[in-house]
Amino acid sequence: MPSVNPFPSRVDATSPAFTANLSAWSSLTETLRARLGGALAGGGAALVERHRQRGKIPVRDRIDLLLDTGSPFLELSPLAAYGLYSGDVAAAGIVTGIGLVENVPCMIIANDATVKGGSFFAETVRKHLRSQEIAEEHRLPCLYLVDCGGAFLPEQDRVFPDRDHFGGTFYNQCRMSAAGIPQISVVFGGATAGGAYIPALSDEVVMVRGTGRIHLGGPPIVKAAINEVVDGETLGGADMHTTVSGVSDHAAADERAAIAKLREIVSAFGDLRRITPPPFAPAPPRHDPAELAGIVPTDLKQPYDVREVIARLVDDSAFHEFKPDYGATLVCVFARIHGHPVAILANNGVLFSESALKGAHFIELADQRHIPLVFLQNITGFMVGTEAERGGIAKHSAKLVYAVSNARVPKYTILIGGSYGAGNYGMCGRGFRPRFLFSWPNARIATMSPEIAAGVVTDLRRQSISRGKADEADIAAIDARTRAQFEEQSDPYYATARLWDDGIIEPAQTRDVLGLCLALAAGEERDSNPRPVYRM
Ligand code: COA
Predict the structure, then answer these.
(1) For the segment 474-501, what is each residue's pLDDT rounded down to a tens digit?
(2) pTM above 0.90, yes or no
């Protein structure tokens, strides 16, 4: 921002604290990279080899072949299902993300057949639904790279019957197609039972000869049901479906030809929205984003100035701060990221009534000015105690939550530290529909910290009428159990495995990730109905 001076950083990169933070962060980053490496390995070397020997290309290589040269790929939730199912379901067996195909930003939804035949676990379904939700919100064409065994049958009760289960993915496909958001499938392998509907409900379908199969019931089911003996190719192969049934529109000789056909289909979309250039020339931050790892302590109890973080995310490290001398525990700034205007709210301590009021006011201004909101969450919660309650913290914090809920502009949330209690709500947690939510590997998310939870639960046990008097051994056991539960469940990998976020990213990647997200929304139509701003 030309009229705004860059932030005068006070960080001393030679201080012992900076060095200690760097070393703590290097271990967090190594862990993240190692776990991502595990997810990239899919079903493991032997199954990937079997896959190749069948003439099939590994899922991420298919995506590379599909994307434009030099296109970024914003992969979503690569650590879905991490630590679940004995570690056997890497990335939940599906790769989803956004990249450019023929210069059109597309959502790619690709099964990994090396992971349990690409069948659907609960997290696979959640990941599929989440990518469709993002696609619908941004009107991104969906490209399905199908290689899938349908529902993972031992888990069918967690995958099949409910609203947000497998059926929901087909409902989304139909609704998006009707809304003019293209739904295109390439069938590389199995598309059986439920899986058959992914291509069957697509606007256009390509099948690979020899390996692509679409059938509601495969040969074993046909034999069991009607005693007919038939081979897979005759029952549901590419030639039959392209020349006889008409379920498929194009048969391709091999996977590369199928991917080329998919690119051809996208090139014929017509006037679909391409990426809109940013309204301002992007400028790199003056302060190096790599320094974030020296600035942010991994111990959430240690305070630091969050402006130092903002200065390493925004263009030219420059921002205009709103009400710097009021409600100081919430820092609110107007800035730019990769040339896109943003209004950033960042925690700098516990939220008081004044901070909440300031946040609500700032959100209204951003909303009126059509500036997307970015929330940097590091929050233990709103202030508690007699003074805070008498000052109306419940109603003032509610104003922040209300403003967050009703803002019309795109919202983005990054968990850069703690995300506890109602602080999660006021700072646009998942319930408040941010367009994307990413976490740093130091993040913690829970109703409260393990120490406070242990205090609350042991107090409840002491006062319990229904369970009689507790002795100190009971209390100690409950204390230990509660701490262990909250430690485990507030871990960022626990969260990302269950898709409470869209992925864990390194601090130094945050600016570029936000830049991609902002670019996706940049050309959207604005709701310009008048909205007053109340000075809170
Ligand atoms: N439910 C449970 N397990 C499944 C499965 C499903 N729908 N689809 C695949 N698997 C498992 C296999 O049992 C195997 O498990 P293992 O490694 O523990 O032995 C693993 O996934 C790999 O399957 P495999 O058959 O070796 O892979 P493939 O690449 O040769 O074939 C399919 C892939 C999808 C064509 C084949 O697995 C298949 O036909 N699956 C069943 C499809 C079906 O009838 N689904 C109905 C769901 S409603």
Answers:
(1) 999 999 999 999 999 999 999 999 999 9
(2) yes
- Which of 57, 119, 169 is the pocket-test mutation for ligand 1 (most atoms within 8 Å of CB)? 119
Determine the atom of ligand 1 nearest the C-alpha atom of 54.
29
Long-range CB pairs of 39-43, under 8 A, 24+ apart, other chains included = 39/78, 39/79, 39/82, 39/90, 39/91, 40/78, 40/90, 40/91, 41/90, 42/90, 42/91, 42/112, 42/114, 42/115, 43/90, 43/112, 43/114, 43/115, 43/116
* Residue 409 DSSP label: S
What is the pLDDT at residue 148? 93
Is residue 93 lining ligand 1, measured as CB closer than 6 Å?
no
In the chain, count H helices and then E strands.
Answer: 20, 15
**Pocket lining: 150 vs ligand 1, CB cutoff 6 Å:** yes
Instruction: Output the CA angle 190-128-50, nearest 5 degrees.
Output: 35
3 state DSSP class of 194 = helix
CA distance 182 to 184: 6
Structure-block tokens of residue 210: 């020899």
Residue minimizing CA distance to atom 14 of ligand 1? 116
Give the DSSP letter of residue 501. Answer: S
Length of the chain: 536
pLDDT tens digits, 193-206: 888 999 999 999 99
Could you tell me whether strands 330-337 and 320-322 are parallel, antiparallel, or unpaired per DSSP bridges? antiparallel
